[in-house]
Amino acid sequence: VMAAIESVIILGAGSWGTALASVMAQTGKRVQLWGRDAGLMRALGEDGENRRYLPGVRLPEGILFESELEALQAADAVFWVVPSGYLRALVERAGALPWAQAAGVWVSCSKGIELSSGMRMTEVMREAGGGGLPCAVLTGPNHAEEVARGLATAAVVACEDEAVAIRLQAAVSCPWLRCYRTADVAGAEWGGALKNPYALAAGMAKGLSLGDNAIAALVTRSLAEMVRFGVVMGGRAETFYGLSGVGDLVTTCYSSHSRNHRLGVALGRGEKLADLLRASSMVAEGVPNTKSLYEAARRAGVRVPLLNEIFAVLYEEKPPALALRDLLARDVRAEGEG
Amino acid sequence: VMAAIESVIILGAGSWGTALASVMAQTGKRVQLWGRDAGLMRALGEDGENRRYLPGVRLPEGILFESELEALQAADAVFWVVPSGYLRALVERAGALPWAQAAGVWVSCSKGIELSSGMRMTEVMREAGGGGLPCAVLTGPNHAEEVARGLATAAVVACEDEAVAIRLQAAVSCPWLRCYRTADVAGAEWGGALKNPYALAAGMAKGLSLGDNAIAALVTRSLAEMVRFGVVMGGRAETFYGLSGVGDLVTTCYSSHSRNHRLGVALGRGEKLADLLRASSMVAEGVPNTKSLYEAARRAGVRVPLLNEIFAVLYEEKPPALALRDLLARDVRAEGEG
Fold this sequence. Notes:
Two copies of one chain form a homodimer.
Chain A: E1 7-11, H1 15-26, E2 30-34, H2 38-47, E3 64-66, E4 77-80, H3 87-94, H4 98-102, E5 105-108, H5 121-130, E6 135-139, H6 144-148, E7 153-158, H7 162-172, E8 177-182, H8 185-207, H9 212-232, H10 237-240, H11 243-254, H12 259-268, H13 273-279, H14 286-300, H15 305-315, H16 320-329
Parallel strand pairs in A: 1-2, 1-4, 2-3, 4-5, 5-6, 7-8
Antiparallel strand pairs in A: 6-7
């Protein structure tokens, strides 16, 4: 049995990785935060702040900042906090290192489905190097900025091994971050991946000034499609109705903190995707997610009219106004059938 | 079998009654719009606009404006569009009149539960005078202002009699207002009533600047409580996951159009309920709803921790900050259990 988690490695020094490092350092864990940009990691140590990805948040003392994977020391848990498209490459580079294989659990904090394989992130982790280790997911409606600023937040840990889940839950929780747990790893991962494209669509509706009634209709249909698709892929319906499904969906659809939402708004206003992607230093997971989810639905033979329209906007230059009109106007056999 | 609905009476000339009159007049129905304020109804006729409740929206030609219940002429359907607390009195006054008894269907557009009886609005209609007539519900995430301005909207008609539901669906739908139907009247009514208190809570969280993560956690738990309570009261879970449940919930929780949301925001900022109610000409249904739902839950023996805290704020002077803190911090046995 794994002991309590007292030390963690966080791979990825973006906003969420930095926020997690801050929270866990404040609750007394030994924290190593790795980022591939040596200059950025040096600046974090010197400034006590991640000015690029989490500006304005003072980081607590004691975090070790590192940009050499080989220099990391063994820890009880490894958190993988990189964009979903980069996870496999990072696991291939780092997964065989001694500290990685010595960890009691690997935790995926990435929301997405791999394009080439259709795999969930924990499946990618297992296949690419974590075969023998417990894998878990940390997900939920968690804007990094708010967690880092101490605002009340609820998250979800998903792990098939309940003993590991309980330890992870204890490690991540703090007075303002409450962490629930579930054994439904598939449901937690499909919910987290699917909400991103739907948030793009809600953002487009907002950018097009379609109104709150239209956005409510879109969000409702997004949830129905998420459940229909996600259950086929092995998740449990109740998981999609919880924090990692509908909770993450609504906050991403309505919050201006969300990069996916903001990108959708800009697309709705007529800006071009290529220009938006060039101008942004952060990755809006919804763009690659839409492609991998569209492909996964095709392979599984699931009807996903919303994903199809979002795909058409992002990859086939369909005007957002036309896509939304087609979505809101199409005949639906009965509510819930999509 | 009832014929197609070609004429309607709309009782209540607030924003939603006026918007419905506008939509149905534009699709060629003969529309009589009744309001109890003779001066307002005269002004509607003269101005072609409801400056008090739906300012800026030009009403189509052909609507008959009336302030005398006895002067209304027979029509195929009667829409009752009054605050839930006034419905019984209006049915008692008007339900026995010839046009009311001659109608093919009564449609409740009120969202609430009667305080004294714990009855749903269609149950109140039946008991107070509509015993022999088909009763239906029109509900969903439908801000009147947006419907009146022609923005895409999805609504729900609930009626146990499918033939009547199909006719109502046809009568209310227009190119920008899509109307779905369900036979689950209880689910549609409990969803519509419950979302109002939860929107007050989300508003309070916003007024207290608790952040989007906290609001997402609240909305998720609101949905879980809505389903748990509503299923005990006879609704089907799938109805609460549709437009009349989660759809109406999220738009009321996130939209600044919503009176309940705005009232919650003001309470969260420290304003006093009595002052807010005095200053407003519109009824925020969430205030009486909270009391009747709290009582109904007590009678049914259902655990409703969210409703209890909202009740404590509105009726027992509990500070919103304390209520929200207690809600976000309390121990939850497992996600979904509330």
